[in-house]
Amino acid sequence: MASKVFRRKRIQDWMWGYLMVLPIVVGTTIFSIIPLIQSFYLSFTKWGAFGSYSWGGLRNFERMLADPNLALALRNTFVYTVLSVPLSIAISILVAVLLNTRIRGVAFYRTLYFLPVVTMPAAVGIVWRWLFNADFGIINHVLRLVGIEGPRWLTDPSLALYSLILVSVWSSIGHNMVILLSGLQGIPSVYYEAAEIDGASNYVQFFRITLPLLSPTLFFVTVTSLISAFQVFELIFLMIGPDSLVIRQTQSVVFLFYREAFINMDKGYASAISLLLFIIIMAVTVVQFRLQKRWVHYE
């Protein structure tokens, strides 16, 4: 009798468990797995007029190998990622450490740094586009007051991409800071107390205690930041625009996907581009999980 009650209770627990994860499974299937399968199929199709398409085999992938726009988009994406992610994480660590101390108005400063996260990307892009305006923007106006002629931030082909990186770093600090701050607050204070008794300086404590114990949180921030950087689109669309003269020097892989899918109406080639980006992100993520054994320290 007791075994039957136990078995019935166990089945009920399983049913409730599956019921709780059912919405996530359904949502992931509808919005992730099915679109991924469809993109994989469409990457082998050739699209014609009025939305008609036929089987094209490897035609889209052969086109990718000879497409200079894709090569330039890959270059822009990698430059954007390599520069924005380390800089954003480094500043976020510094801000998180400073806001983890007992300073006056710490709650206000935490809120201030987090504001860009809750601000709509459209608003962020429009405001920064106005700030970077070469003729009427505040940044160049301030530079003129001190006798410096400001550059054309968003129309200079050699500078536009770096202007986007600057905005990206600014807008991502708050998100990374909150996550890193939670990791810092999870470090037991006894380690720092013991280090102070041994005479360790703040510099030694940071590199010997803070960074090693913060490494799991730092690993999570690194993975998510890289994935987000590889998928950059909003800033380019809002600050540069598809008709800008510098769009080739700033467009990312996702922006090229948007152009091919919704402007050129070649969804087959666009699906091949998205599949390539998926493979790149997957490869980079796998490498990170392999390398994390060397620098991530779990208590």
Taking the alpha carbons of the first and last residues, their distance comes to: 44 Å
Low-pLDDT regions: none
Q: Main sheet: which strands, in order across? A: 1-2
Radius of gyration: 24 Å
Q: How many individual domains?
A: 1
What pattern of helices and strands is seen along the backbone?
Answer: HEEHHHHHHHHHHHH
CATH homologous superfamily identity? MetI-like
SS-derived structural category: mainly alpha
Helical run tally: 13
Number of strands: 2
Please tag this protein with its features.
2 strands; mainly alpha; flat; MetI-like fold; about 300 residues; two-stranded antiparallel ribbon; about 0% strand; about 75% helix
List the SSEs and their pairings:
Elements: H1 2-42, E1 45-47, E2 53-55, H2 59-65, H3 68-99, H4 106-118, H5 121-131, H6 138-145, H7 160-185, H8 189-197, H9 202-230, H10 234-240, H11 247-250, H12 253-263, H13 267-295
Antiparallel strand pairs: 1-2
Helix pairs in contact: 1-13, 2-13, 3-7, 3-9, 4-7, 5-10, 7-9, 7-10, 9-13, 12-13
